[in-house]
Amino acid sequence: MNALASPIFIRLFVKPPLVPLLIVATFVNGFWSVGNLRTLAEAVSTDGIVVVGMTIVMIAGGFDLSVGAVMAMGGVAAVVLLPYGIVVSAVGAAVLGGVSGTLSGLLVTRLRINPFIATLAMMVMVRGAVLAYTDTRPVVSLDDTFLALGGGYPVPYAFMALIAVIALAYLLLNTRPWGRHVYAVGADERAAAMSGLRVQLLKTQCYVISGSLSGIAGLLLAARLGTGSPIIGESTPLTAAAAALIGGASLRGGEGSVAGAFVGLLFIGCLVNVMNILGVPSYYQRMTIGGLLFALVVTDGMLMRLRPR
Amino acid sequence: MAANPLVEMVNITRNFGGVHALKGVDLSVFAGEVVALLGHNGAGKSVLAQILSGVYPPTSGEIKVDGSPVHFHSPNDARRHGIETIYQTLALADNLDAPSNFFLGRELRTSLGFLDKRRMAEEAAAALVDLNPNFTDIERPVRQMSGGQRQAIAIARAIHFNVRVLIMDEPTAALGPHETAQVAALIQRLRDQGIGILLISHDVRDVMRLSDRIVVLKNGELVGEVRAEESDEDEVVEMIIRGRKLAPADGDGP
User: Fold this and answer.
1) What is the complex's ipTM, to 2 decimals?
2) Does domain A7-304 have CATH number 1.10.3470?
3) Can you tell me whether residue A296 is helix, strand or coil?
4) Which residue of A has its CA nearest to B112?
5) What is the pTM for the complete model shown?
């Protein structure tokens, strides 16, 4: 096969142009310093855990707008549950996220509500619940173990957690029958059902995974900040979707990979990081990411029309 | 010849909302017998077939396999009783390769529960080459494959897993003359192995040639039943169009 057409080349040089960006970044002062790389790793790790869940849901043909709100819920829950021990706190964050994912999954599969609408509703409900519970104020933790979880030098613990989550998701999607089933459901639900797959259960499981991972991401973010904030994660659904789309996922389902999404996220992370170093105001950064997402959705649609069936 | 049918559907009805798609239909398939289900679009033949495949439960009525009542909640339940289906749409996942589609829902696993990709590729390749000697390069998404190759995958996976009753929904509708002849040969071969075949078609000529018994549906009701050798195209066409009721054929089977 032509090396320039190989998937790995495209994934690193073209869609997204991660390697060219890294080369350009060499000329940006301090990009390759240990301190900056650690900042970068911190910035991508919590979003990255969310991206893995979002990617799985998108492969199954769904979407999860509630990830940011669930992240906030996970962070608040983790801090509130800390007096009962770090294990209860972590399990609580993950389980609450999983419960929210279960509800999203049931809305989508049982009531047959469009995933965007269903998870939009979940997003608003969860966000509302978290704001009501905290009375809109962040909950602060001074627990040493918890705060240590937000550290790690030179590699942040959250980044190690991200790598572990990616590895597990990769194994699940590529080496277990379950992964095949998720891809099949995303490509053609009816064909999957006729082949005897339990489509509704599979889709619900994907939302549960997404919710749990968002809860865990919220916990790790709260550990880093020392605070469970009810307002964090507002732009997370878009960042996560952008990363998944850049990484080869599609709004039509059946496509995408966690490795690709990770590269997509690294690309967004590096872009933001470079813009930060260069002092680009955050509003312009948002416009850049938004424009990127727009361009992706447009090209995704165009590729669909061009693709041989 | 076996006295009892492999499968028997008794007084099957099926409503979709207020639409009565099936109004009490009986159907049986014996071992080594090709039963053709004929009728216009909307006569209820696909719904009847999909009830036997486990896609829909019947609204009322009974399905018996080897004489004992069964309840299918999903195609997996039907498959567990040896009832396999080749759907008209083929029901393939376009993004997966041939081995993944071949084993979809019943993947080969290693002792730790991981996909046994090598063994899946080997078994699928052997089964596909058996049907179509020119079928190589099976490990690419099936959306890149030809209609004949896709059909081969759908057929191969239906007959690979101890099939006893094979439901074929318009198996030749999308095929050229050469491939149609291949499917016809396959039907003969499977019948000779003692497999019961339910053939859904609206091509009367094909049906006369391939089947032993012909069952005609119209507006969700059984119009009549004839043995192919004792009938001719004209009679069958008249049954389809007029819905003329005939005395049911002797139910003792072949």
Assistant:
1) 0.85
2) yes
3) helix
4) A176
5) 0.89
